[in-house]
Amino acid sequence: MARGGRLSPGFTARLNLLSDIAIVVGATIVASGWEWGMPLGELPAAVFWVAVSLASVWVIAAAALRHYVASAYERGLIDEVAMVTTQAAAALTVLVLIDLFAGNAPGMPRPSVFLVVVWCLSLPLRLGLFRQIAAREEPTDDVLIVGTGPIARLTAQDLRNHGRRRVVGHLRLLNENGKEGNLLYRSYAADGAECRVLGTGRNLESVLRTVAVDEVYIAADTRKHGDEMQDAIRICEKLGISFALPAYAFRLDRAQAVNGRAVADGYLHYQNFSAEPYQVAIKRLFDIAASAFALWLLLPIFLATIVAIKLTSRGPVFFRQARVGMHGRRFNMLKFRSMVANAEALKATLANLNEQSGPVFKMRRDPRVTRVGRFIRKYSIDELPQLINVLRGDMSVVGPRPPVPDEVMRYEAWQQRRLSARPGLTCIWQVSGRNQISFEQWMYLDMQYIDHWSLRGDFNLIFRTVPVVLTGRGAS
Amino acid sequence: MLVIEDDPAIRKLLRKYLEQLDLVVLEAGNAKAALVLLEGEKPSLVCLDLVLPEASGLDICERIRATPGLAATPVVVISARSMPPDRARAEEVGANAYLVKPVRRQTFERVVKELLQLD
């Protein structure tokens, strides 16, 4: 019973973008008509240009916040509200500025009406319609299934038909024979999907280190594969990856689980992070509010830095670096460019001058840094664009620093667990001595953070980071 | 056809579906009646509910598979439980198909026709 007609990725986004542009343009016209009491035909042409500029601002803000990328439709409700509000606020700011300069020119829309119309149309449509449509697009979450037997096959089928999750592959367990494998392949083929058996249960660790996986389904009969399932659990725990175990290890003819919702899909889900969902929500809410406010407050510094970089050095303003985020998924971390444009290429020639133990490259008098670069690094201004990463949800304010992919390849297994938390701007390491610390100690500090996470601890770290950044102490 | 199901309403519905395919239907409302019927009759298909008053449908399925004259009889399990581990368990005891309540008529007919190789 495959759900018919999966939508191609991006369909919702295009529909959503068109509808939002229509809303912004419509709201401008309504707000103008409201203010001047004129019917549509009599509005001056200037209103049209105002509408176009507001729509452009909306699109730019949405691009920065990645409001229309496929994964954005998986965001929590507070994220959605915050994103739509931020975009509406950006358009509103421009409208107020236009109003200010245009004086009392006829046809200028009333900002309050504009805001109310945009917000009241865009947000409900996003929550009520586009998220539902997006749910029918190709999935964005990746899971790995340990097992190729009946439970694994039926679980994969279930995920294909109902879930928002993609099965990246299966691992075969001992005694799972060719007949079971054939049934598995046939079940995938029946849905027109490709079945990938990536190896055996023994390959779990190496597979998890190379493929980004959000959750591992350990889908086998506990009575037959108990030892191997236990091994798989151990590896998931070591690497800090969430996993699910069949909720019914034994045959139950009549009995029901007391908390039925906890096992609604037949699995018990485990995570290696002790946070309650409401605490995670508060953390995210704080991230959104703090980063949006900080971006607004720091706008002058942003503009000054952009001008300084553009005037003194050739190349782009931002430096996008691939970093590894939560669950090993890559994202582009934004920084103001503080080095010459071909810095990554020059890194290999400097490798023997590395001053940091372990797989990280750090060097005090790096010749690749530009003059402006040295200044903005000293005061950590180069790190400020990461506030955009925070607002987007790639990062959090507090969390282990996101590593570069090379670094992760050289991690020991237990260090991989750093990736179970959303990476952050600051963590324990940043407030306790900065670069004067060994790689191993740094990893231990990050594990401390993950294992003993609390909201209060986060706020403590933020307050202790502020003086470190302001004085530029230890930063190089 | 033998329909083993403790809910009379569903039994009646399945009877209607099957009779419209011109099939002869026997009903059993509990496991004991089902086993008695199975001793004498050799149905060409069994529809089986998993939660019965005094036994489990899985046991009946196992019994059917272990009985020489019945071992090859197609068994369609009809259950309210839809989760993969439940389905896997039914497969293990030899069920040929697993339908989740509420069963849609088209699905039911398709599965029955497939198993009986009608058409």
Low-confidence stretches of chain B are none
CATH architecture of chain B: 3-Layer(aba) Sandwich
Provide the domain count of chain B: 1
| Average pLDDT, all residues of chain B | 90
Rg of chain A: 26 Å
Largest sheet of chain A: 6 strands, mixed
Provide the β-strand percentage band of chain B.
15-25%
Give me the secondary-structure category of chain B: alpha/beta
Query: Assembly type of the shown chains?
Result: heterodimer
Distance between the termini of chain A: 59 Å
Q: What best-fitting shape of chain A do the alpha-carbon axes yield?
A: globular
The helical percent of chain A reads 40-55%
Measured distance between first and last alpha carbons of chain B: 17 Å
User: What is Rg of chain B?
Assistant: 13 Å
In short:
The complex is a heterodimer of chains A (476) and B (119). Chain A has 476 residues and is of the alpha/beta class. Chain A is built from 17 helices and ten strands.
What do these coordinates show?
The complex is a heterodimer of chains A (476) and B (119). Chain A has 476 residues and is α/β, with parallel strands linked by helices. Chain A contains 17 helices and 10 strands. In chain A, strands 3-2-1-4-5-6 form a 6-stranded mixed sheet, sandwiched between helices. A two-stranded antiparallel sheet of chain A has the order 7-8. Chain B has a 5-stranded parallel sheet, with helices on both faces. The interface between A and B is medium-sized, with 20 and 15 residues.
Descriptive labels:
heterodimer, A: 476 residues, alpha/beta, Rossmann fold, 3 domains, six-stranded mixed beta sheet, two-stranded antiparallel ribbon, 17 helices, disordered N terminus, B: 119 residues, five-stranded parallel beta sheet, 5 helices, 5 strands, 16% strand, globular
